[in-house]
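Hey all, sorry for the wall of text incoming. These are the two entities for the joint prediction.
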Amino acid sequence: MMAQNIYNMTQVDGNWNNIPNHFDCFLIAGGSDCRAYEVLKKAKSDNVKIDNVYFFDFDERKKGINKKFKDAYNEYQKLGFNINKISCSIQDPSACIKSLPKLGIDFSKHEQPAIDISCFTKPYFYLILKHMQLINKFSSISVFYSEPKSYVFPKGLFSSYQSSIGPLNILEIPGYSGSDVRGQKRILVILLGFDGDLSREINEDVAPSETFIVNGFPGYAPKFKDISLICNERLIQEKNSEINYCRANNPFETFNLLETLKKDEKLQSRYGNFFMNIAPLGTKPMALGACLFAIHNPEVRIVYPMPENYIKVTTDNSWKSWVYSIPLMIRNLGHFGVGPR
Amino acid sequence: MLKENILNLNDSYKNPFSEYNANVMEPKTILSYWCSPFNFMQFAGVNESDVYTDKMPIVFIGGRGTGKTMFLKYFSFPVQIEEARKIVNDNRSSLTHFIQKGGIGFYLRIDGPRLRSFTGAGVSDETWLSIFTHYFELVLGREYIAVLKRLTEDEILNKKSVSQDFIPKIDKLIGNASKKSRSFEDILAEIDNKLLEVDEFRANIRFSNISFQPQKAFTSESLSFSIPQIAKETIPEFKEGINFIVLIDEFENFLAPQQRIVNALLKFVEPGITFRIGMRSEGFRTFETISKDDFIKEGRDYRKIVFEEVLIKDKGYQQFLKDIARKRLEKVKLFMEKGFVDISKILDNSENLEEEAKLLTKKNPGKHFDLLKDKSPHEIKLLENSDNPLIEMLNILWVSRKVGPNEVNQSMKEYLNGENTEKAKKYKRDYIDKYKLSLMFLLASVYRKKKMYYSFNTFSFLSSGIVGHFIELCRNCFQYAEFENRELLFQKGKILPIQQDKAAKIVGDTELHMIQRIEEFGDYLYRFTVNIGNLFRDYHKDKGIKYPETNQFAVDKGAIEEKYRSAFNAALKWSVIQKKPALQQPSPGKHVKDIYTINRIFAPRFEISYRTRGGYSVELTPQDVKKLMTENDVKPTPIRKRLRNKKNDKEGNWGQQSFDF
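and here's what came out:
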């Protein structure tokens, strides 16, 4: 019988209903996007108690931005929380995490941790969640996320979106290298984003026997599903690729899909034990689902294109905010069933 | 019934060029697509049997898509055992196949993300070097054992000698202390456990400062050389001269310290073991070995074969491409049944420039005579040939070079009448041998339209010796044809030039776009390509056609500032630019230099010639290279000035003045 867990995914509404109203540790990344401090602002206005805000202050994000973006970046200072600033570089999340003890920062002394992943890069929040599990031994964490209302497409909707700047280096996300038993066939699951170059590069580098494409549907807006398909047309046309759909804002659906693939009998009969690679290029909630899956299946590898830099602002306005309760302790999770929405 | 059959054939159609990544092909597929390049061209003195028998390591160099992976995989055990089975039925006789070949290929590819994970996290380079040595030995050792297991299971090797003599020694080698009798599975599981130790270390070192403490550490050669030696000592079949050929793919992805480990193995290969390495141009990050005082040297320690050089210069290249296409076309039942298996017939062998010119000028014929504003209607009349705008363009060129309209008219007539006069010969030389294609580019520029890129001949030039480019061009044009003119493709086996042209342009655009994402110096390379492409484009718009089809440049690479020289090397590595095989004079009277071309796949993007005629090369200074890499939209004024100021520039400057920078 399949194990079932009820997942907890709640919309952060104006009254902060059904959400804990006290966190002793809240991690957030600095950013100039409108949604960067949306959750903190809502918490402030609803008198949610946050003892310590750990603010990841990215050097690269403050360089070369105009006054408008600078002011947006610094808005966190006006919220009146107890801010613990952690200077860090986007390029090296591992160095940042390893430096925490030297800075006297120990999250494990806290009991109610939370993180807002809206403006963290994916390698960063992946590493933080693994750190929370492996080093801090938290059994679960509240993960907040604010959806963007739209993305910035500089030259029209199709094929012009880029979230990163400059040359790419495809890397294993630190801590998620998986176990590659030689001789095993590989499959690659790409959580589809808008940047078609990235998916193609990763597919070529990983060279899987089969590629599963996961598109965010329903997306934050109806058009996003089509844009991502068009932007990735080349990859989709390739042989050995199959398209699947997962709700763009629900990490548990992504988790469930990955779990299904892992146990898929047809795949197992085709390839035996296979080496699963995941490239989380799509929305952050989908990436969170993949992160949750990889935490509970350490043999899985996460690959990600690390760019020279990221575009400073890629989204436009803020839409809904969500909080997900993410279990971190390793156990047989089974599938997630529908929980409160 | 017949109609139904045709419908079924149509329904079963799939783009014959859709499969192109050898990395993911099954052995049977590789075998079915394999076209031996040795059948069509000389490989720098290497023949097929040398791959198994030459003791010296061989490094195969080529850009993305040149077919290195296909090549290395073909020689690997899984493909060769398939080939053996096609020839002989019983397993034991398969041994003869390997004895005849002279070796067994062990294919090894470690992907980029994995290789890049053996660095950083506060661990010293030397420690990573030891860890990677350990990892590499285990990975290669596992590959050997997996193949030997299969050979034993298939009874190609004698089971008794393997289990009694070989396995115990290997057991001891990998550090199994127990006296219990073991199997291949046990050994593989043991190696997998040891690899798992490495994986766990790589994962955990990112969070805390731990040290790597394996149950047993493997040093260089401890498995890579020892396992073949033990096999040769203990398994009778290996005493008959079967070499262990280690085929390492994508060597350019190995980091410098990792390359040092393999370089040391190349340098000290032992009898019966050797290496075949596939990598991109400039893929050696270092020539050092583990000992930094020692290094490998071409000729002494390894032979080098450059795929693109061989493919570009060899006349067999087009035949090779045709054969590759034929194998793919034959897999489509519809094409096979109708005999549409010759790509040069489907695309047409070569372009028809006269027809293209007529089509291009159709809406506004004679507009090109605007170039001669100072000539009377009578004189213009003498230069006209309404059937062939390219001939008219040549006449305009001659007049611009101070040849009288009457003389031009006379030469044209004598040429068109097929007369054997000096004038006719000169006219023919200029039209057919020298300027025809240039005139087409110029004509397109006058009409503000784009030259089309089509035909098998053009595609083979555009592919620049990179088989993958050719397959991609074909894949795209078959896709357009299927969508836009399916009937013509399915019933007549033809693809229109316009669809081929679309394919050429989209592939050129995609490749150009991808340059930006190259991991190192991507921005520099993109700017350089765009700038130099635009510079060449200006040459193609020169109304005097002083330097026809200029698309190559000369530079003293050694004099380029280090950072930009590295970027230049990256351009070679990624085949953004290609070096011509031999030193050449940039132009008559100059010292010989290295000559480079931009990859011709970009030609449609810049509307420049798809072939390299030689003759004139733009000379770039090291400063020019830096400028072209670092500045956007570089106007080639300094280069133009150098050209204009040349004292020996005695030819008319009509063309030079017309440059519009």
